[in-house]
Amino acid sequence: MGTERKPFAVVIGGGRVGTYLACKLTKVGGPVILKGRGASKPSKMKTQVELLCKEAGVVQTTSYESLYDTTVEYVFITTKTYDFDAVQKDLEAANVKAKVFVMIHNGIVKPMFENSVRVVVTQSWDFHETPGEGVGVKIVVRNEEKPWAMPNTPQAKEIEALLTKCGINASASKEFEFMLLKKYFINGVANLCAILGDCNCNGLLADHRDRMELLYAEIFSVLKNIHPEGFSMMPSDFHEAVFAGLATYGEHFPSTKMDFDAGLDLEIGSLNGYVLDMAKEQGIKVPATEELVALVRKKMVERDAKSE
User: Fold this and answer.
1) 3-state class of 134 per DSSP?
2) Range 9-142: architecture per CATH
3) Is residue 97 within 8 Å of 73, Cβ to Cβ?
4) CB of 198 within 8 A of CB of 261?
5) CATH 1.10.1040.10: which residues of the chain?
6) Is 0.85 surpassed by the pTM of this model?
7) Distance, CA of 79 to CA of 219 (rounded, Å)
8) Could you tell me the pLDDT band of residue 41, with boundaries at 50, 70 and 90?
9) pLDDT (tens digit, 9 = 90+) per residue, 68-114?
10) Using an 8 Å Cβ cutoff, are 54 and 30 in contact?
11) CB neighbours of residue 194 within 10 Å
12) Contact 100, 155 (CB under 8 A)
């Protein structure tokens, strides 16, 4: 793995979030390993990640074999949610052990490790080129002042303290279930909708508010009986707070939109697909959500056909 000292943490997922986190973690422990997928061909993002990791002292790897029998304090999983099952199997096969597994993700997923902490983040990350400055690239964070939210548990308190030392605002809060829902609503009205609209968050609010309002109403009606704890914490102006929260992202393109443009698979199951599943269980009709998911899947087929 290219390191003599015992690794302190492993970050699974070499995208924007994983790279940002791995670089931050080097400030409080040593060595940090970033496990990426490994691009089959050179790309701008691959080069940018390599430059940032080299600058911060992050050790990069693309194979689970290189992690075999590794025991660390923390494993952070920052991959897309559709990869979670495979990541869990690969970590078990490689006998990777950790005191705490931390799952950082969009949408709503089931807990996957006995000793795990779920984290909800409200930031967005972009790589910006800085010719002639530093290593030529930097990570720009939007909404950096907002905390990474976790449940109010002893393990989460430990992660809160760790992230705080790294310079990441974090909060193990009794309001976690509400914060999870608020982020889910923002992602639910925006991420897949941005693919249909081919636009950023500003464009969504300017031109696609009607569709988003329908999605909001369906999410609300479906989830209110599934997540009573979070709904009990909702303020009277929750609707306004969701769209105001979306507005803070400005010209940022939702991550799912960026994945679509990059030809990648999409997080549907943990986003609007979750509403479809929960609606089916309750016998609730959600035509706007059904149409959204169907249109996005159709666009994926068309996109992939063009690339063949």
Assistant:
1) coil
2) 3-Layer(aba) Sandwich (3.40)
3) no
4) no
5) 184-301
6) yes
7) 24
8) low
9) 999 999 999 999 999 999 999 999 999 999 999 999 988 898 878 88
10) no
11) 24
12) yes
Q: How far apart are CA 77 and CA 54, in angstroms?
A: 21
Give per-residue burial for 197-236: e unless 16+ CB within 10 Å, then b: bebbbeebbeebeebbebbbebbbebbeeebeebbeebee
Parts of the chain belonging to CATH 3.40.50.720? 9-142
- CB 259 within 8 Å of CB 265: yes
What is the token pair recorded at 38? 């490994």
pLDDT per residue as tens digits for the range 229-265: 999 999 999 999 999 999 999 999 999 999 999 999 9
Show the tokens assigned to 179: 């914060």
Question: Contact 71/85 with Cβ under 8 angstroms?
Answer: no
Phi, psi of 42 (to 5 degrees): -60, 145
